[in-house]
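Supplementary Note 3. Input sequence used for the single-chain structure prediction.
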Amino acid sequence: MDKNLMFAFGLTIFAGLSTGIGSLLALVAKRTNKKFLSASLGFSAGVMIYVSFMEIMQKALNVLIESKGEIAGTWYMTIAFFGGIAVIALIDRLIPSAGNPHEPHRIEEMHGEQSSSNLMRMGMFTALAIAIHNFPEGLATFSAALTNPTIGISIAIAIAIHNIPEGISVSVPIYAATGSRKRAFWLSFLSGVSEPVGALIGYTILRPFFSPTIFGILFASVAGIMVFVSLDELLPTARKYDTGHFSIYGVIVGMVVMALSLVLLM
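The predicted structure, written as discrete structure tokens, is reproduced below.
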């Protein structure tokens, strides 16, 4: 396998399976560190929003203008960007509300008063919802890493951070329902497997048709996916964990770090 492909796939595996980090935190820690989670999620959103608008969309636009002309290329980029948003929004819409991972969970809920059957159902629904959400995110990470390793690393770290509270969301209700740390960990861990699976399936389907135009459309769609995930998942969850202004500080620091990395590695 090509080294670039191996590197991109490795980053995608790292990002997806970091749900296991959240699961370990939930099963080992005594209390939820709200400040850390809020700032981390804000940081992740800042990285993803900044790199989407300042780098990924620009690259997509340049490629599409070169292959299709200025007016047509701009239209292609715009439609692809909002098409990416539409795809992830549709996935979000189709997920049952009972299993939607947007509602953050706290470690203190480990021994809640809900019935075991309800908690188990909640955990399984959440695991399924996260697996579905991670599918396009895997393709986004893989595509970015394949095109520009620097951007790929930044996006992989951002998505990995964003997957930590998702791991908590799966493991907390499953552990509370079953009392099994092992079962809670593995179901949480496996919910992130869909990220590298999404990368592989997406790459396999698109590879025979790959061209500058397809690349530009894919990259613009990736930007749309990441902006939607940031605005719909990361920032609202960061605010729910927040106890002050840690989420917005995280956003700003994430943007600064991403800006510096892009400038210094030009």
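The mean pLDDT is 79. The chain has one domain: 3-10+34-264.
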